[in-house]
Structures are given as structure tokens and as C-alpha cells.
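User: I'm curious whether this sequence folds into something compact or stays loose and floppy. Could you predict its structure so I can see for myself?
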Amino acid sequence: MPPLTPYQQLEQEFRRFAALRGAANMLRWDAAVMMPRDAADVRGDQLAALETECHGILVSPRVARLIERADANAQGLEDWQRANLREMRRERDRAIATPAVLIARLARASARAEARWVEARSANDYAILAPHLEEVMTLVRDRSGLVGAALGLEPYDALVDECSPGLRTTEIEPLFRSLARRLPALIQRAIHAQPAVPLVPAGRFSVSRQRQLAIEILRSLGFALEHGRFDASERPFTGGVRGDVRITARFDATDPLCGLFAVLHEAGHALYDQGLPVAWRGQPVGRDRGVAMQEGQSSLLERVIGRSAPFVAWLAPLLRRGYNVSGEHWESAALLQRLTRVHRGLIRVDADELTYLVHVMLRCALERRLLAGELRVADLPEAWNAEVEARLAIRPRDDRAGVLQDVHWAIGAFGYFPCSALGALLAAQLHEALRRALPTLDQDLEAGRFEDLVGWLRTEIYQHGAQLSFDELVRSATGRPLSATPWLRYVDSKYLG
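Assistant: Here's the prediction. I'll summarize afterward.
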């Protein structure tokens, strides 16, 4: 048997790296779903050990030598292998910029902070989280500075680039400015144009029935439960690894729709994860193309598709049967009215399509101030409340409805929110391309036929993994670079047309 080439040896190294990183992802899933509350320090040590091992692989002299040798012979590689080599180098360059001790400290600190976030949210007391968030913030600030200096990026761009490779604030800020100019008037006009009192189903709805409905919807969409799980947690998220994709949800017995639409959101992530190329599993090129692309899939399914008249026409009889209810509140027209109601609310994940981007942009503003040291962690609740009041003319009544509603900063996920906003814009642009490609889309949705929809996404997005850049993938799927124009066109037609 001939000796392995440098590139083949690299694939072996990164397969081991992916296995260790996958184990860490499973531990994080367990921490959010099943772990005893007081086990956070133990879990932090476990994660620190795994992250240190992963870091050690990336910064090893052996991997550095293999990358150089593989680069020298790249002409003999297939296109996907050259892209894989590019992603390997990217991983290595970021790792070299970050000391192993900082990686371990951040893993421990974020594990503790996540557990304290759950406790603080339950107690409605930011003070429980504050010292742990302060520690995470300090470590994130240190890491972003080191990585930014090594890669020639501003610290905040270093965080954004980690979430969505290649994205920069110079591309994001013009989109935000365009939205900021239009959103206040759009929100005001949409609120005035809609009926004053939307029909809201009332009563109590068992969590077990909501869960059964969610599973039925997941199966209809094509989520393969034989290669995944569906569980309850304090926060909805998608985790796991390729081949074992895990969705979590939080149901409310007084709200028959909120939990189900959170599941739709997570299904967008999970279908993407399950649709990634099997042949590239365990390699950097076999991963998704970052947070913005992921959020494009979830926003498309939850908001654009899920809150469309054809989809709600399919969903309405499922709800009536699943909850054993009837009446005008449960007809598709009334449900659609509720699902597309625009209102200035406090909770991001429950926000309508128009105010959602306001929520996201205020978080972007706050985290940039935190990173720059212009805003102290201790002062975050008041700064949060002031931003919400200035942008949405409402004020959080308590910490749970304010600064404690999101876990992202507690787990060190700074730079996520601007990518999330781009995902919302991308969803509208993908929808335009979908409608061009699938003229029978509305009829398919109303009949509960999702094969062509998911098949188009698999062909245009999923199968490419990380082979293409974000911009290349957007252009390939939609025929143009990402723009705010399709989203503005979409919401204008939906809410004001």
C-alpha cells in the first residue's frame, strides 16, 4: 500500500479533530438539556480538556508541515480538496493566534456562565450572572484582540469572521443603515394597517401534545429522527454532529404556536446539518458555511415559509386535530393574522419579521460597546433597557424580559447577532430564487409537500458545505450578492401590499 500523501495525512488529523470537537458539542448539548445544575464546573473542566486537545492538533508542527507540503502539491487535488486545504489553513491560523490557556479558561468560564444564566433567568436576577459574564467578556476581549492582530482584523471583525468566515462589518453596516432608515416607518405603517385586535386562541395546551405535533411537522419536513433527537431545554437550539443532529425546544402551555414555530426555526438548521455532504464528513469543508448561512435557512423556514398563507393552510387542520379544537380562532385566516401581527414586543425570539431586526441591531450595538470597553457589564441592564426604549418605545419590565432573555453572551457568542441579521435578509433573497425555480411552491406548501423545497435547498446550499465562500454561495443560489432590497420588497408586499 503506497504511503499517504501530506494531504491524506491532513485528512486523518482533521478527522480526529472533528471527533473531539463533536464530543465537545455533545457535552454542550447535554449541559443545556440534561446536566445537573451544579455540575457546571465539572463540565467546564471536561470541555476545557477537549478544547485544549483540539487546539493542540491545530497548532502542532506536524500539521503546519503537512499544510505546507500539501499546498506545494495542490495542483493534484480535486476542487473540494483544495477548498478543504484552505479551510484547514484558516482553522490553523486562528488557533495559532490564541494561547491554549486562554482556550481552556474560556471553555470553563462559559460553561459556568451558561449554568448561572439559567439560574439568573429563573430567579429574574441579573446579579447572579453578572460576575460570570464579566469573566467571559474579559476572555473574549483578549481572544478577539489576539486573533484580530494575527489576521489583520479589527477585534469585532475577528469575532464576526469566526461566526461567518469572510464577513466584515464594512459589508454589514451599509445594510444596517439601509434597514435603519426604513424600519421605523415600515413598522408604524404595518401596525396601522393591521386589524386592531387579532384573534388569539385561548386556553391551555398540553406540552405533550405540542411535542407530538412538533414531531409530526419535523417528519413532514424531512428531518430524519433516526439520525437525530428532539428534546426540551431552557432555550431552543440545534446541536450535535453530522449524523446525530439534535433539536431542542421550549413549549408554553398557554401558547399553542410559539414553541412550534421555534421548532420550525430549528428545523431549518437541522435540515441544513443533515443535508451536508456525507463524503466530506469529518473535514472542515464538510461543515456549514457559518452563522449567516445557517440563519438564512432557519429564517426561511420559520418566518418566510412558516408564516405564509399556503403553509398555514396546511398547518391549521393539524392544529385543530392535534389540540382537538375548533372555531374561527383555529381557521387558517385567523391563525395567519396572528402569526403576521406586527407589534413592538420585548422578546427577540417572539418578534415579528419587522421588529426582529430592530432587536438584533440593538444587540449588535451593545456588544460592540462591551467589546470596546465603553460599556461595563454591570451597567448592561440599564443600557439594554434604554436601547429598547429608544428603538421600540417600550421598556423591559424586568431582567427576564430584558437582558437575560438571550444566552449568547454568556456562552461567549459575540459576533453572532450581525450574522443573524444577514440571515434574515438572506431568507427573503432565497425565497425569491425559490419561487423562480419552483412555480408550484404555494400549491406544494398547502398540500404539505416539502420534497421539492428541501431538494432545492439541498442542491443550492446544503451540498456545497464550506467549499464556497458565503458571497459565492449566495450568488450561486440567488444570482446576485446579498442585498436588503429583496427583504424590503418582501415585507412591503406581505405587510403593506
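Summary: The beta strands are 228-232, 237-241, 244-249. The chain has 20 helices and three strands.
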